[in-house]
Write a structure and sequence with these properties.
The complex is a heterotrimer. Chain A is built from 16 helices and 4 strands. Chain A is mainly alpha-helical. The longest helix of chain A is centred in the middle third of the chain and has 44 residues, at about 185-225. By secondary structure, chain B is of the alpha+beta class. Chain B has one helix spanning about 10-35, and strands at about 45-50, 60-65, 80-85, 90-95, 105-110, 115, 120-125, 130, 140-150, 150-160. The model of chain B has no long low-confidence stretch (mean pLDDT about 90). Chain C contains 16 helices and 2 strands. Chain C has helices spanning about 1-10, 15-25, 30-35, 45-70, 80-90, 95-120, 130-150, 155-165, 175-185, 190-225, 240-250, 270-295, 320-330, 335-355, 355-360, 370-395, and strands at about 40, 270. By secondary structure, chain C is an all-alpha fold. Classes of the chains: A mainly alpha, B alpha+beta, C mainly alpha. Chains A and B meet through helix 10 of A and loops of B.
Chain lengths: ~475, ~160, ~400
């Protein structure tokens, strides 16, 4: 056996560095979107089922059911994708890294797989038994809690592996040092809240999209009614919609409610990201300085600005939604919301100021143009992180929280009436969903590129991946 | 003899003046006592740190010297660190290892090639300039001078920094 | 005469006579009666034990603190030596110090839970606003005691806490550096700094604290325990009539004055003695037992003697200051540090203290007042997450 292994030689893998990297990236980005949604949706369905236990609210019960159904649909695809990713993409294209990583972080990966198996059992049991469990809402809630815990543990253990790749503590393979490596807990918090925010945004997207579809049908149907004749076409339209008008209004009300619920989660959870992300970046600075430098001062600095723009956009869109949603219900005195919106736009603009009008800070210094732009240089002192952007981040947090709080206050006082929404507002929901989705992809690009040329920082480079161990000639 | 009659207004006036006097008598000395450190001068002393001819460039060298705070009755000397940095041109920096953020103990990290403050992750370069994290200003230097003694250059410091941090 | 007293007290013979003599002059029985026979809402009694547990823990701190004073020397040179002697050469010295430390930890935890309970049940609303305000001030005093106490041992941990905390005021514009000088007695942390901190820890803060505790308890007795919304539900078809009946039959201190009729008197009450007091005593016994065990198992750590020249020691705050410590990581430059610490933190502390004057709606159920619950939970989650991030930062240094 050992002799047989010794006969193996290094042979090049199919494809070159760029195409393989691209294949890995595409599958990874898709995988992240699916997995993050599942984890966030599990948490949100548990919360809704919990609220439904406390107060008889059929909307929360229905919402939890809808989420479980969506998870059951998405999970199959997600599992297939993950298996494809591990078996084919990782093993073949990046065999070295995968084998090394599997040896070093063996136990986290084993626990991760275990959590995956328990998810399958729990999710399909809940999905298939939903109606049968309707008399036992507490049991349903308990199973959902277990599912959320399993989902969270799975993410937790894969985060140990992922953060280890970025900050391996000089390759310390001690189990506790792996689990508590410098970016492990920050990444876990970052993803825990980020996944819920993404699930909220995705739900808002779904609600907006469905609302637009439902009202378009209604509009089409109304035309023959206005003509005063029940034409065959109108009857067909009613048939197609499948619901009498009063039910359609109820459905619109439900979609409106789901939309604002999703936006609330997306905004509130993203508020945490401001300082979780800050701590995360700080750990990278202290423990993997080269990666931090690429992200903040190197070639990724402008990509990172795009990321900050998207983060600001979440709050701007959220605040716009809250403001206009209150206006659609005829709430008077909206100055708080107006102020928050304007403040958030300004804070976002301040936060995305580039510090240099070039790709890389090193380029600016090399060209001897490290002067403010008003002195003919390429530097923008307003784009400094300190203190301007710190200030902008504080403003984002305070104003975002104020906007959301002002909205829930109006809601709790009954001034926001469910169902009184507009088609235009649904576009904001669509934009919010897109923003968070794009943001996750940009984050993935920054993550993977920041570590370049390493796969495990300081230990294993990407060039190694272009060869695999195969049988000799 | 008839008792003097006072109106309520007069009575209140006298009482208020009396309490005011008592208040002044009690607070003025106490306040002055509490505030006295503001007006006290610290005793300035000079300490011999040691010869610095063999200090390498490109990395700071930590030297220790007993320093008195020079405050009030304090004459005991407590060990403090002086980070000596020799520049390319031969001049010397005598940096204090006191972070300008929260005055924690800064140390030179060979891994980062920077001074690191472990409290809140402040970073300074070799010259003591604040280059990362929360510190608002560069590392302070001890007030120092170089004296020639027996053909050696010897570093002396005073028990204060060259700028208030 | 003594026969009358024995009827009231159950004491016979000589003991009854002595008690009767005292009672006649001091009014003990009446006082006990006032103190013990009060109506308390029936539901949620275990949650109300947190307040009395806080009081017991504060008294425990006073008690163990007095014993530590028998040996500790507040001197820059000798503080550490005296504690080192106390730890290693005195029998039970380490245990007493351990109880003082674990008592402080438990106190902060319990006071936090007590606050959470009051916040969630909206007990702070009219007319109990001042209960909340005095409680919030007490919380700040306890935090102040905790941080000044951590400075006293003059080991590395205490010394660096003293350095960092006395440095914070200098970020106040204009007068900040003066305050730092006053606290430290100069530019460096020297003998004066320790003595002043000692005086604050031993006299100034406890003095304020016991005054406030008196006020807090007097207010509690005046308005009665609010409890929570569960104590005010109505079950009949005519809630108005049910509430009127409740108010009419209420035992003192109910019905609460200047409150919405619905919340004037709980649906069912029990006597403070023995029902609520029994629960209070049980919880307090468990807590003191936990402190006792922790003190003997883990004690209180005493680091190496303070070394201002150290290059290897990593100053770490106590766990309850980790969130604030993590915030310090985020804010750079002189004016932003000042803004962050004094304006933002000050605003947060002020909002927290004046919460009853912000949240003035009549709603008491958590889900009916999301506008308070949402920011409240946000900041609670923020504190927890900042602590986690702080742990990861310090673990990996």
């Amino acid at each position: 056996m050992i002799r047989a292994l010794a006969d193996l030689h290094l042979v090049p893998v199919p494809g070159d560095l760029v195409t393989n990297g691209l294949a890995v990236a595409v599958v990874a980005l898709l995988h992240v979107q699916v997995a993050a949604y599942l984890q966030g949706a599990a948490a949100l369905s548990t919360i809704s089922q919990g609220i439904a236990l406390m107060r008889p609210d059929p909307r929360h019960e229905r919402f939890a059911h809808g989420l479980v159904t969506s998870m059951a649909y998405v999970f199959g695809f997600g599992a297939a994708l993950a298996i494809f990713w591990v078996i084919w993409i990782l093993t073949v294209l990046w065999g070295h890294a995968w084998v090394d990583l599997s040896i070093v972080t063996f136990w986290p990966l084993v626990f991760e797989a275990g959590a995956f198996l328990s998810e399958i059992v729990l999710l399909y049991a809940i999905y298939a038994g939903w109606d049968r469990l309707s008399a036992y809402p507490r049991a349903r809630f308990g199973m959902l809690v277990l599912l959320t815990v399993a989902m969270w543990l799975q993410m937790d253990f894969i985060d140990v592996v992922a953060s280890y790749m970025l900050t391996p503590n000089h390759g310390d393979t001690n189990q506790l040092a792996q689990v508590l490596n410098p970016t492990s807990l920050p990444l876990q918090l970052h993803r825990t809240v980020g996944n819920i925010a993404w699930a909220g945004a995705a739900i808002a997207f779904y609600a907006g999209f469905s609302y637009l579809r439902a009202t378009r049908r209604q509009r089409r149907r109304r035309e023959p009614e206005l003509a005063g004749a029940r034409s065959v076409g109108a009857m067909a339209a009613t048939e197609f919609a499948g619901t009498p008008p009063s039910d359609a209004a109820a459905r619109r009300g439900y979609l409106d409610w789901v939309g604002q619920w999703g936006v609330l989660w997306a905004v509130m959870m993203s508020l945490f990201q401001i300082w979780i992300g800050y701590s995360y970046a700080k750990e990278i600075q202290l423990h993997t300085y080269s990666a931090w430098f690429r992200m903040m001062r190197g070639i990724l600095s402008n990509v990172f600005l795009a990321q900050i723009f998207l983060l600001g956009l979440i709050f701007v869109l959220g605040s716009l939604y809250f403001w206009q949603r209150m206006r659609a219900s005829g709430v008077s005195r909206l100055w708080v919301q107006r102020l928050c919106f304007v403040g958030l736009v300004l804070a976002t603009l301040l936060a995305v100021q580039p510090a240099w009008f070039a790709v890389d800070e090193a380029d600016v210094i090399a060209a001897h143009l490290d002067r403010p732009w008003w002195d003919g240089g390429l530097l923008n002192p307003i784009g400094d992180f300190i203190p301007w952007k710190v200030f902008a981040l504080i403003a984002l947090m305070v104003l975002g929280l104020t906007s959301a709080t002002s909205y829930v206050r109006a809601y709790s006082e009954g001034r926001v009436r469910i169902g009184e929404t507009t088609r235009r507002l649904q576009v904001v929901l669509l934009a919010l969903g897109m923003t968070v989705s794009v943001m996750m992809m940009v984050m993935g690009v920054i993550r993977e590129n920041g570590r370049q040329p390493y796969l495990i920082h300081g230990e294993l480079t990407i060039q190694h991946q272009q060869v695999v161990t195969g049988p000799g000639p | 003899m008839a008792l003097p009659t006072l109106t309520r207004r007069q009575w209140l006036g006298i009482t208020a003046a009396g309490s005011g006097l008592i208040t002044v008598m009690l607070t003025l000395p106490a306040l002055g006592f509490v505030l006295s450190p503001l007006f006290q001068r610290q005793r300035r002393e000079t300490y011999r740190v040691g010869p610095v001819d063999d200090i390498p460039t490109a990395t700071p060298t930590a030297l220790t010297v007993g320093v008195s705070s020079g405050e009030a009755y304090d004459t005991t000397r407590v060990d403090r660190t002086v980070y000596v940095v020799r520049r390319q041109d031969g001049s010397i920096l005598a940096l204090a290892n006191t972070c300008t953020h929260m005055q924690c103990n800064v140390h030179w990290s060979t891994e980062l090639n920077q001074f690191l403050c472990p409290c809140h992750g402040g970073l300074y370069d070799l010259e003591g300039r604040n280059v990362g994290g929360p510190p608002p200003s560069p590392l302070p230097q001890w007030v120092h001078e170089l004296r020639e003694e027996d053909g050696q250059t010897v570093l002396y410091i005073e028990n204060r920094y060259d700028e208030s941090i | 005469m003594s026969t009358v007293d024995s009827e009231r007290t159950g004491l016979r013979g000589r003991a009854g006579e002595v008690y009767g003599w005292i009672d006649e002059r001091a009014g003990t029985t009446e006082l006990l009666h006032k103190g013990l026979y009060e109506a308390v809402p029936r539901k949620g009694g275990w949650a109300y034990t947190l307040g009395s547990a806080t009081l017991v823990l504060i008294l425990l701190q006073l008690f163990t603190g007095i014993f530590l004073l028998l040996e500790y020397v507040p001197s820059f040179q000798q503080a550490w030596i005296s504690l080192d002697f106390l730890q290693h050469s005195d029998r039970f010295g380490a245990a007493v110090r351990g109880m003082h430390l674990w008592g402080a930890y438990t106190l902060i935890l319990i006071i936090g839970l007590h606050m959470m309970r009051t916040f969630l049940s909206a007990s702070y609303k009219r007319p109990r606003e001042l209960n909340w305000v005095s409680g919030a001030l007490l919380f700040f005093l306890v935090l102040g005691l905790a941080v000044t106490g951590a400075m006293l041992p003059m080991d590395n941990a205490g010394y660096w806490t003293l350095v960092v905390v006395t440095n914070i005021p200098h970020y106040i514009p204009f007068i900040g550096t003066g305050i730092r000088t006053l606290w430290r007695g100069g530019d460096f942390v020297g003998p004066i700094a320790l003595t002043r901190t000692f005086a604050i820890h031993i006299w100034v803060l406890p003095f304020l604290m016991f005054a406030l505790i008196g006020g807090h308890l007097a207010l509690l007795r005046r308005h009665g325990e609010f409890g929570a919304w569960v104590n005010y539900s109505t079950s009949s078809d005519d809630p108005e009539r049910e509430i009127t009946g409740r108010i009419r039959a209420a035992e003192p201190p109910y019905p609460t004055k200047r409150i919405e009729r619905r919340y004037a008197a709980p649906r069912e009450t029990v006597n403070f003695f023995p029902f609520q007091l029994g629960k209070d005593v049980m919880v307090s016994i468990v807590l003191v037992a936990v402190i006792f065990v922790m003190a003997f198992l883990f004690g209180a750590p005493l680091d190496e003697r303070a070394d201002p020249s150290t290059l290897t020691y990593t100053p770490t705050p106590e766990w309850f200051y980790l969130p604030l410590d993590q915030l310090l990581v985020f804010i750079p430059t002189t004016w932003l540090i000042g803004f962050g610490i004094f304006v933002l933190m000050g605003a947060a502390a002020t909002l927290f203290t004046i919460l009853p004057f912000i949240d003035r709606s009549t709603h008491r159920r958590p889900l009916e007042r999301p506008e308070v619950l949402l920011p409240g939970l946000f900041f609670a989650a923020m504190i927890v997450m900042l602590a986690v991030l702080g742990i990861t930062r310090l673990y990996n240094l």
